[in-house]
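Cross-posted from the bioinformatics board.
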Amino acid sequence: MPRDTEDERIYRADCPTRPILDQIGDKWSMMVLAVLVPAPRRFNAIKRQLEGITQRVLTQTLRKLERNGMVRRRVLGGSPPGVEYALTPLGRSLQEPFAVLYDWTLAHIDAIQKHQEAYDREAVAAARDSD
Amino acid sequence: MPRDTEDERIYRADCPTRPILDQIGDKWSMMVLAVLVPAPRRFNAIKRQLEGITQRVLTQTLRKLERNGMVRRRVLGGSPPGVEYALTPLGRSLQEPFAVLYDWTLAHIDAIQKHQEAYDREAVAAARDSD
DNA sequence: CGGTATCCCACATGATACTG
DNA sequence: CAGTATCATGTGGGATACCG
């Protein structure tokens, strides 16, 4: 959670940061950005690297990122023609906050899974007791 | 996005960090944790502070946080009886990664909104051109 | 190659009522 | 006070087909 500031909006669903945090927390945005970190890539190159994403969803995700100024879309002339997507400085600047969150997750994933298993065992035991 | 590691899983929807990131990215988890930073609180105290959340959703959110070991639930004896929720050390340790992300958003929200407006103006202009 | 156009569904969230 | 139960809904995401 954000640090405990005087800013009361952080407690409200209409905090202006919500739409932005919602997008970068969606299913694919973070991974699309990750794919573009090493170098710009073409549409189908991104799609191949993100096994499981559909064309429709990749298009939607790229459009939202472009609209936010995090990705730049460039039509390539030449043969074969194509479209290239690249990180903007704004998009690249997201790398650090995401890395902090990702590293936190990696550091605590084992502890979290142990908690989950313990919680689930308890739930099973409670259900048994109530029989 | 996570930094560019050798770990190929970061590109995959089945990366083991997904379920955790999905939860802490859900609509209310972050705000519930934020409310608990200054001090433990009772169910209805949390609910009052998060205007707009329903009882059902608050219960679900707290159960998931408890299951992950981020929040501890304590039944208070005495009169009136009640239930108190408190951050665990694990839950509190999320404060920093979240603050980094939140600060990034605050720092760039103006730039992002300008990009969005420019993008939307372009879309309107393109629609007009195609008439 | 890089998309749109349709259709569909699961699931997160919400509204409301009831309870130990 | 702290929930559960029930029902409703919007939308993010997926499947598939077609297009310039």
